[in-house]
Amino acid sequence: MNTKQTPDEKRRLEKVINKSYDVIEKSDYISRDLSWLKFDERVLDQARDVRRNIFDRLKFLAITASNLDEFFTIRVGSLYNYIDYGKERTDYSGLRELPFKKTLMAATQSFVTETQRLYKEDLFPEFLGNGFRVIGLNDLNHEEMEQVLDYFNRTIYPMLTPMVFDHTHTFPSLLGKTLIFGVVTKSEGERTESNINESRKISFVQIPQNLKRFYVVEREDEIMFLPIEEIIRHEIWKLYKNVEIESVALFRITRNGDFDLVEHEDSETDFIDEIKKKIKDRRLGRVTRIEMEGGCSEWMLQMMLKRWKLEKNDIFFSDTLIDFTAFWQIIKHAELKSKQVAQRASVPALGQLTQKPENIFETMKQGDILLHHPYNNFEPVLQLLEQAAEDPQVLAIKITLYRISKHSRIAEALLHAAENGKHVSVLFEVKARFDEENNIREALRLQKAGCFVIYGIPGLKTHTKLLQVIRNEGDMVKSYAHLSSGNYNEDTAKLYTDIGLLTTDEVLTRDISEFFNVITGHSQPHSYQRLITAPRDMRKSLVKMIQHEADNARAGLPSGICFKINSLQDKITIDELYKASQAGVKIQLIVRGICCLRPQRKGLSENITVRSIVGDFLEHTRIYYFHNNGDPKVYGGSADVMVRSFDRRIESLFEIYGTQVKQQAIHILDWNLKDNVNAYTMQEDGSFIQCASPAECGDETFNIHKKFFEVNATEVMEARLFQEEEMIEEALGTEV
């Protein structure tokens, strides 16, 4: 088998792809996986942007690589779960498993080719002018080479372990997302054409993951980054003394990390053990991709494809660095050297809230406060927990945790509260993907300190973000709450845009108390007044509000819908949005990532527009707006419009009710629709077009990732959506 495609094979593949795209074009829905790739293309655009400095451009290139790792681990892994076990699946695009995989791999190959071109032709040439280089061994002088060889002998060499595969040794268990050398060696003695393959052996040398990717050489006028694989390649002969090395090739594999848990309701220990087992299984899951440098041994590659049941289009050849996530080391080194880790100062939240409130409880009593991170500091949330841990009047703290930071002030405050005799209840979701080990470790630490810890709910992921503090205030017991779209993680709060509501509203806090009883016990409330929860009634409630807007439009009343979310995938909700569009409802969707809805299709979705914001911060805010005949209903929360959010997760959306906080949420949507720097418009075919530059249109630059740091109360209170006659374009001055 030749791993290089023949002309006939190329023609056959092109025929399959062309036929697939004909099917895709006719579908009323966009493929979730193809939409994911489109999002990664928008991230790659940030690396193309010459207005950014070289380190920002490298950062976005590294993010695309990290995204692609997750894509092959989860999405392609999920696809293989169907292919390997003969299960049927029809993608939203209308394609069955195998033609869809061919189409998906072709699109991914094109994307990877462009990332490599961008690095080689656009970014790499800029390194020298910015005081650094990625080098080879030939760029070192004699003294530097001696230091490198000493580093190899002292540090690297003792860690390397060649693992041979032949008729007496089983194929080794190679780690995913790890750089590996495949080494083909020849045994001594005479060889003929008939026995040449029998004389060959393959062995694998994994580069230890706890070694930094680059060896750094600092000169007076520049910093040089030497890939560690080049050091090992130069010295690999030391592992194969008295053996002839035929070829050495670097590669990297990705494994399937998509798994389901068999959960046992009657045994917490079994549940944790099952998660630990699945984490181990993930490390040895089926291979979904090979990244391989060019010029590798054809014989070795054939063996790997056969072993891992892969096809030629599952190999991604590289003539440059493998694994662009390595650039994080260069970025962090540059930040340390220049000390340019400057974080913009957050603006104070509207209302009475300062950056570090002296008494958060007294401040919250004055009215609801909507925080918009990172523009508003995350400190008030931390202060609520830290003051609650110390306050003798505080009786209890309840919180849901999904992902926390490595050195979490949240966890420390909860530990301290338990030590001070507070009743602390923590619903710690240990099934949060890729954070399972850290969450289990932290949950056990909290449990040992005396916190009442619940390890998630069998069959569901707890994704909702809720915090409640119960305080005895003499003549009454008062509840203080925080509800959020983002995690209780002070690190990501600086990088992700999210909203959080601090409230003492009795109606909402009563709902929260009921909801905690549901998710920590067996309570079944009759109804909530200001919460919408999943899996109980979220899809049904959103559909009902969409239908209400459609009814208003048919009756000639003002109507409008605006969602700001991360992902839109649930077919039932998409179909209702289509119907509302056909009824005349103007629908503005701001969807950061996956969008399976097809906008602007004649007779289907002519009144729906979709835009995506991709820039300095990861857009993570979820806001749902319904015009409601001039009395807007506005919700924030943790849930996207996805099947998993509605059916397989515990989620919540909270009504943003007070006049000021509702106006703030409307203002966030308003400015998201005005952005002309970070915004992309989705086309009917699923592609995205970047908004024309303000300079080209003669417009003023409107970059929300900067503007929100400068917002004032007047701008917030003047923002409007869907005014009766003007609707979106005139009301916002925005043409999409």
Automatic annotation (TrEMBL):
<dbReference type="InterPro" id="IPR024953">
    <property type="entry name" value="PP_kinase_middle"/>
</dbReference>
<keyword id="KW-0460">Magnesium</keyword>
<feature type="binding site">
    <location>
        <position position="403"/>
    </location>
    <ligand>
        <name>Mg(2+)</name>
    </ligand>
</feature>
<feature type="domain" description="Polyphosphate kinase C-terminal">
    <location>
        <begin position="531"/>
        <end position="694"/>
    </location>
</feature>
<dbReference type="InterPro" id="IPR025200">
    <property type="entry name" value="PPK_C_dom2"/>
</dbReference>
<dbReference type="GO" id="GO:0008976">
    <property type="term" value="F:polyphosphate kinase activity"/>
</dbReference>
<feature type="domain" description="Polyphosphate kinase C-terminal">
    <location>
        <begin position="359"/>
        <end position="524"/>
    </location>
</feature>
<feature type="binding site">
    <location>
        <position position="592"/>
    </location>
    <ligand>
        <name>ATP</name>
    </ligand>
</feature>
<keyword id="KW-0067">ATP-binding</keyword>
<dbReference type="InterPro" id="IPR036830">
    <property type="entry name" value="PP_kinase_middle_dom_sf"/>
</dbReference>
<comment type="similarity">
    <text>Belongs to the polyphosphate kinase 1 (PPK1) family.</text>
</comment>
<keyword id="KW-0808">Transferase</keyword>
<dbReference type="InterPro" id="IPR003414">
    <property type="entry name" value="PP_kinase"/>
</dbReference>
<keyword id="KW-0418">Kinase</keyword>
<dbReference type="Pfam" id="PF17941">
    <property type="entry name" value="PP_kinase_C_1"/>
</dbReference>
<feature type="domain" description="Polyphosphate kinase middle">
    <location>
        <begin position="144"/>
        <end position="330"/>
    </location>
</feature>
<dbReference type="Pfam" id="PF02503">
    <property type="entry name" value="PP_kinase"/>
</dbReference>
<feature type="binding site">
    <location>
        <position position="496"/>
    </location>
    <ligand>
        <name>ATP</name>
    </ligand>
</feature>
<dbReference type="Pfam" id="PF13089">
    <property type="entry name" value="PP_kinase_N"/>
</dbReference>
<feature type="domain" description="Polyphosphate kinase N-terminal">
    <location>
        <begin position="29"/>
        <end position="134"/>
    </location>
</feature>
<dbReference type="InterPro" id="IPR036832">
    <property type="entry name" value="PPK_N_dom_sf"/>
</dbReference>
<keyword id="KW-0479">Metal-binding</keyword>
<dbReference type="InterPro" id="IPR041108">
    <property type="entry name" value="PP_kinase_C_1"/>
</dbReference>
<keyword id="KW-0547">Nucleotide-binding</keyword>
<keyword id="KW-0597">Phosphoprotein</keyword>
<feature type="binding site">
    <location>
        <position position="620"/>
    </location>
    <ligand>
        <name>ATP</name>
    </ligand>
</feature>
<dbReference type="InterPro" id="IPR025198">
    <property type="entry name" value="PPK_N_dom"/>
</dbReference>
<dbReference type="Pfam" id="PF13090">
    <property type="entry name" value="PP_kinase_C"/>
</dbReference>
<protein>
    <recommendedName>
        <fullName>Polyphosphate kinase</fullName>
        <ecNumber>2.7.4.1</ecNumber>
    </recommendedName>
</protein>
<feature type="binding site">
    <location>
        <position position="433"/>
    </location>
    <ligand>
        <name>Mg(2+)</name>
    </ligand>
</feature>
<comment type="function">
    <text>Catalyzes the reversible transfer of the terminal phosphate of ATP to form a long-chain polyphosphate (polyP).</text>
</comment>
<feature type="active site" description="Phosphohistidine intermediate">
    <location>
        <position position="463"/>
    </location>
</feature>
<feature type="binding site">
    <location>
        <position position="67"/>
    </location>
    <ligand>
        <name>ATP</name>
    </ligand>
</feature>
